[in-house]
Design brief:
Number of helices: 13
Distance between the termini: 45 Å
Shape: globular
Radius of gyration: 23 Å
CATH class of the largest domain: Alpha Beta
Bound molecules: flavin mononucleotide
Oligomer: single chain
Low-confidence stretches: 66-84, 338-344
CATH architecture of the largest domain: Alpha-Beta Barrel
CATH topology of the largest domain: TIM Barrel
Structural class: alpha/beta
Length: about 350
């Protein structure tokens, strides 16, 4: 029997297949189904910085409104006493999830600014979360702000949260950093216990009739696995913290690829939305089958077997592969003599 057990963020998991944040992971019945079909851990949907800050300022507003009208009687006002915040609902979800399933529950915070919202990390710990995933989802659209200052702020944020809680903190990032390798190392130095590679950005679309800019979510496909695969293969060489692969993991073989590249766990959301929560069981069978066919007894044996520092041609993970790829592709369609760049 193949041994699927892994360590992720210091947590002992039965397998490397994790349900990443998405609609199913915010519903208790679906969480139970995910556990049933083999999810080794569940990442809850994110609690957003804006949500926390909005609710905090809303409470402040209500307080000041009533203080103006009623003076010291403000603390008795039902609007405030009965104010049921989304943040409270989130903490209740963490508690209920811990009660409902046995697998580790990873709570998720999404934000990039330094501010009062950070104290929610502690509340998540108190609610029973096993780890925190911090999603640094930001679109760097202000031309006055340079990349270095964005990165410095994000690293400060990670350090503050890591100090605030005794839980392990994983950081979910996008691939869009000018020196991703340096940023990954800086995250490790800032106290991250792991990195999730990668977040998937949703780009808006245009409605060609109304000319409205429409937010559109489209689910991932397997070709998108290549980006995390490349970067996990590169990062495994210099990161000692946990690595989760996310984006494009639709089958057990996809998970196997990321593990071979150096990931500790592989996460799925789109595949579960396409095929249902039971798909994790299929993925586990596929992973086991691939491992037996290729002589691997355990996931730990596989991990990093094909990372950049383990392969004969490390350049395959880097730019050197680019010219070879485009010339061989082009010559398949046009014949080898039709372009100036010849594949040697
Ligand atoms: C409908 C939907 C909701 C999502 N919600 C969250 C979220 O709340 N927090 C988060 O960090 N990621 C969220 N994600 C991103 C996923 O966790 C995952 O990183 C991304 O979809 C890429 O993985 P995939 O290819 O397996 O879908 C969401 C994705 C989808 C499709």
């Amino acid at each position: 029997m193949t041994d699927l057990q892994v360590e992720y963020l210091g947590l002992h998991l039965r397998s490397p297949l994790v349900a990443s944040a998405g609609p199913y992971t915010g519903d208790l019945d679906r969480m139970a189904e995910l556990e049933q079909s083999g999810a080794a851990a569940i990442v809850l949907p994110s609690l957003f910085e804006e949500q926390i800050e909005h609710e905090t300022s809303e409470i402040d507003r209500l307080y000041s409104l009533h203080r103006d009208s009623f003076g010291e009687a403000s603390s008795f006002l039902p609007e405030i006493d009965g104010y049921n915040t989304g943040t409270d609902a989130y903490l209740a979800l963490v508690e209920a999830a811990k009660y409902r399933v046995d697998v580790p529950i990873i709570a998720s915070l999404n934000g990039t600014n330094l501010g009062g919202w950070l104290r929610y990390a502690k509340f998540l710990e108190d609610a029973g979360a096993d780890a925190i995933e911090l999603n640094l989802y930001t679109v760097a659209a202000d031309p006055a702000v340079r990349g270095a200052s964005i990165e410095a702020q994000q690293l400060e944020l990670v350090a503050l949260i890591a100090e605030e809680v005794s839980l392990p903190v994983a950081v979910k990032i996008s691939p869009f950093y000018s020196s991703l390798a340096a940023f990954l190392l800086a995250l490790q130095d800032a106290g991250a216990a792991g990195v999730v590679m990668f977040n998937r950005f949703y780009a808006p679309d245009l409605d060609m009739e109304t000319l409205d800019v429409k937010p559109r979510i489209s689910l991932s496909n397997q070709a998108e696995l290549r980006l995390p695969l490349r970067w996990i293969g590169i990062a495994r060489e210099f990161l000692t913290i946990s690595i989760a692969g996310s984006t494009g993991v639709h089958t057990g073989r996809d998970a196997a690829k990321l593990i071979l590249g150096g990931a500790d766990v592989a996460m799925s959301t789109s595949a579960l939305l396409f095929h249902g929560t039971g798909h994790l069981a299929t993925m586990e069978t596929e992973l086991r089958d691939w491992m037996s066919e290729h002589g691997y007894q355990s996931v730990s044996e596989m991990r990093g077997a094909v990372s950049r520092d383990a392969v004969a041609d490390p350049a395959a993970y880097e730019r050197a592969n680019y010219i070879g790829n485009i010339t061989s592709y082009t010559s398949r369609f046009l014949g080898s003599s039709s372009i100036g760049l010849q594949h040697k």
